[in-house]
Amino acid sequence: MTPLPYRTLRPWLLATFGREVRRVALDAGxxxxxxxxxxxxxxxxxxxxEGSGTGALKTGRELADQLAQGIARARHKGRAVDVxxxxxxxxxxYVATERLREVLSVVDPWIGSRVVAxxxxxxxxxxxxAAVEVLAELAxxxxxxxxxxxxxxxxxxxxxxxxxxxxxxxxxxxxxxHAAGLFVVGHAILGxxxxxxxxxxxxxxxLARARVGGVKVHNLMILRxxxxxxxxxxxxxxxxxxATYVQWLADFxxxxxxxxxxxxxxxxxxxxxRLAPRWELEKNSIHDLLATELAxxxxxxxxxxxxxRAD
Length: 311
Prior knowledge:
Layout: H1 9-17, E1 21-26, H2 63-73, E2 75-76, E3 79-80, E4 82-87, H3 97-104, E5 115-122, H4 129-139, E6 144-151, H5 155-160, H6 167-179, E7 183-190, H7 196-209, E8 214-219, E9 222-223, H8 227-233, H9 242-255, E10 261-264, E11 274-276, H10 283-297
Parallel strand pairs: 1-4, 4-5, 5-6, 6-7, 7-8, 8-10
Antiparallel strand pairs: 2-3, 9-11
Helix pairs in contact: 3-4, 7-9, 9-10
């Protein structure tokens, strides 16, 4: 099989852990400063009321039960596999230090057995020194990932989508996470209003310069119960068709550093929640189309990378 012209997650996980692993998404009931009134209300314009979360809290399950049930379901070809405990919903370091310790403690019984890493999703502006210290302590026992949403490397675009943080805050958070020995994953969205094709390239360059180890990228999606839904219904917001997204995604991948690992290259919101786009493509189709486009160009991940340059 011909190697892909970009780095994907599964081979990296196999090389890193020596075996198959799965992620178990956990909902700790966190919130965000642009939802609770600290910076604003309603959250990011594209984010639904559950913050891309699991909705597990609606069932009344405690975190420990969520993790135990996720571990029980984690299988590959019918066999049990180890897991990455993924604290997914909202900003998980936007809590008191004691609460963060309490949340993370649910992995303690599983360290050395079924949980091989911990991943904590948060925002770059909700990453105080106390949270860094707590995560660094845990990282001395088990690999810890911290996932920051950059989304776009343009402060004007970030303001328009009500992210309520800056590119500089992202840079600072990444630098402090690296200094604490944490593995960093950066998130990006292509096709945000006002960002454009050059915005996709610019965001990839920022992620490369920030030296994030992992990258999650997807196209802008219009979800039900979001602020963008109204604008989209009014015709003031467009989404990318599949062919255009693949073109922009190829641009994005070319600008990344060669060693960065693509954890995700397309969105996966359920059809009942997603208003647009409605591509009739499976995830693997996007992988195939991206590989074909890069081959057509004669390029690969990192072909245009400026990581490490001073410009």
